[in-house]
Amino acid sequence: TMIWTAALLMMVVSYADSGEDPYAWGDMFSSCHPLLEEHHSPINIDHRMTRNDSLGSLHLDGFDVVQTGHWTVENDGHSVVLQVSSGMSVSGGGLPDVYHTVQVHFHWGGPATNGSEHTVDKRRYPMEMHIVNLRSIYPNLTTALNDPLGLAVLGFFIDVVYADNVYFGHISQKLSSVAYKGQTTKIKPFPLISLLPQHNMSQYYRYYGSLTTPPCSQAVVWTLYEVPIYISWSQLAQFTSQIFSTEEDAEQVTPLQNNFRHIHPTFSRVISASKDAKLLTGTASHPLRLSATVLLLQIVLLRGFISSL
Prior knowledge:
Layout: H1 2-12, E1 44-45, E2 50-51, E3 58-61, E4 71-75, E5 80-83, E6 89-92, E7 99-108, E8 119-120, E9 123-124, E10 127-135, H2 141-144, E11 151-161, H3 169-172, E12 184-187, E13 204-209, E14 220-232, H4 233-242, E15 272-273, H5 285-307
Parallel strand pairs: 1-8, 2-15, 11-14
Antiparallel strand pairs: 3-6, 4-5, 4-12, 5-7, 6-7, 7-10, 8-9, 10-11, 13-14, 13-15
């Protein structure tokens, strides 16, 4: 597991010298150029998807127990990464194999902007959490990146409410210890399932895509859960305002913000909804359409009023 973890860190976040602008990654990583019909991530999820009744809940083995040893939280200059010990795996739900869980990381925006990587009906959530899992037939990430099914990433949108999420506090309470790039701290393992929307785990979307960081390898089976994780405003602010992409002794301290990649076209890919997914009912698209209708009605009424003067 330590080899997988080290490889994951080296490969997924080896773009330190390529600049923070995701649009410029292709200058140093040719595989990050989204050419025609290539399957890049993230994407926008909308109602144009196919229901797949064979997609039931995934089996999250070991997620409900406290793992032995310790975990590590790190600020790698691009995200906050939770490195977990061995003992957890993901299978079922249409996945072709068993995948070993290796790490969890986060994407966010700024104090006044949302920062999820995927969007739902063009709505961007405040944050997104990724649980990265490595296909069990591979000894390390490097070999897995050559397989379109090499990684299984579970994506969870994070939304905001007023009350603290007690379980999310296991991570957010450690953030002050990893405020600056390169800082790490140990964390006592906790049941990872406690972070997740446990009563809605059968509601998700499935598609095939890529890493959202260089080398942007098209090697990911994506599972995006429909129901978000809820955290408090103060817990969100710890990410958007109190994490820095620079070292503590840097001449100019730079906040780590907007660490998400831009949306890519789906092209000919099939986006599948699980058997229990709600297919985007009640999403942000409906009030937006209503607002446009109301605005149009107001314009018509105003014109009528003006013409009657």
